[in-house]
Amino acid sequence: MEIRLEPADEYPHEVGPEEHFNESVYSNCFDPVTGMGAFFRLGNRPNEGRGEVTVCLWLPDGTVGFTFARPKVTANEFSSAGLSFEVIEPFEHLNISFDGQVIILDNPMALEDPRKAFTESPTSDVTARITLRAVSPMFGGEPTERIERPGEEFAKGHTEQLVSATGHITVDGVRHDMNGAGLRDHSWGPRTWQAPWWYRWLTGNIGDDCGFMVSRIGRRDGDGVRAGFVFDRGEMHLCNHAEVTTTWSEDGQYPEAIVAVLAQRDADGVVHRQWTITGEPSRNVPLRNRRDGQVTRIAEAPTRWTLDDGRTGQGIAEYLDQIVDGTPVGVGQS
Predict the structure, then answer these.
(1) In angstroms, how far is CA 196 from the centroid of its own chain?
(2) Are 166 and 314 contained in the same domain?
(3) Is 55 among the domain residues?
(4) Same domain, 183 and 200
(5) pLDDT tens-digit profile of 209-251?
């Protein structure tokens, strides 16, 4: 099976016929010196007439700034509700801008009750200007053959790339410079957040020329996807096996420690190269999506990562779980 990827794929795609067609652009970024972290996501669902805009700021003082909007969307453009992604040069250079308000949370767990959090939390004006430039080659594209089963469609096409991130995020007049790194993501095709049974998406940057991505997707009736990459000193290592072991909080709801293993295996299962990455997540931000009676939680946590050779860096751990009887279905899975 071939993967197609062209410069035109950096821009909005023709809207498909699927009711749940989605095109989204995303980036996270962290500054290791100031301690500033953020992620920005814009998703368009033109066939549903709406979009999804999320901005999350992990501020150096320990608080979290957050906003979410479902703007009316009829055109597939990378600009909505104050957030804009501009492609300057495909595969090389992207600009993000945001002008709007966020709520300020001393404890991000308040978002377990989002209505109350948005009603009772103070707000701050935010201006963000972030420049993203390529660090690694682009990962992914659009497969020439269908790989997702009916009902499990999550992205017809999907790209990811390690990037440097420079610029600033100003909150109520206080400027926080960003001189760090992150990962950007772009996907298009039919999507609902209820399609995966659970997944673990881990990304991290280690210094200026190293980083990784782990994708572990669990199915209701099978093992699912185990994949990722490690980029190190100019070389891209594609991995066809991944395991994620999680130590959960006492209430069994959120990750407290993570051990991820990425490996290159042959057809006989023999490991030719392997990386072990440990993570210390903090300040989990619980996000919720509901559709057709199903509750889905996406927990976002800035995470300090340590490679098995001792190098350290920063990134994010994103844990998606369907919630059944109050319990994340992926607890105990690796």
Answers:
(1) 15
(2) no
(3) yes
(4) no
(5) 999 999 999 999 888 999 999 999 999 999 999 999 999 999 9
Classify each residue of 6-39 as buried b or exposed e, where b means 16 or more C-beta atoms within 10 Å of its C-beta.
eeebbebbebbeeebbbbbbbbbbbbbeebbbbb
State pTM to two decimals. Answer: 0.96
- The CB-based long-range contact list for 251-258 (8 Å cut-off, 24+ gap) reads 252/327, 252/328, 252/331, 253/328, 254/281, 254/284, 254/286, 254/299, 254/301, 254/319, 255/281, 255/284, 255/299, 255/301, 255/317, 255/319, 256/281, 257/281, 258/202, 258/303, 258/317
**Same structural domain for residues 212 and 169?**
no
Is the Cβ–Cβ distance between 236 and 137 less than 8 Å? yes
Query: pLDDT tens digit string along 242-264?
Result: 999 999 999 999 999 999 999 99
12 domain-assigned = no
Host domain of residue 290: 193-334
Distance (Å) of CA 285 to CA 68, 78, 319:
13, 24, 10
Q: What is the pLDDT of residues 103-151, one digit of tens each?
A: 999 999 999 999 999 999 999 999 999 999 999 999 999 988 777 777 6
